[in-house]
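[Meeting: bench + compute handoff]

Bench side (C.D.) handed over the final construct sequence. Compute side (W.E.) agreed to return the predicted structure before the next meeting so the bench team could plan truncations. Sequence as handed over:
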Amino acid sequence: MDQSLVKMNGGYGLEFHLMLILVELYKTFTNN
């Protein structure tokens, strides 16, 4: 696999995980 492709996927993965964490935090705040 190309190195730049791996870097791109890693960046997207990080953003995706951050988004999931934000969504989970939002859910807990709206539930209370």
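W.E. noted at the follow-up: Residues 9 and 17 are 12 Å apart (CA to CA). C.D. will use this when planning the next construct.
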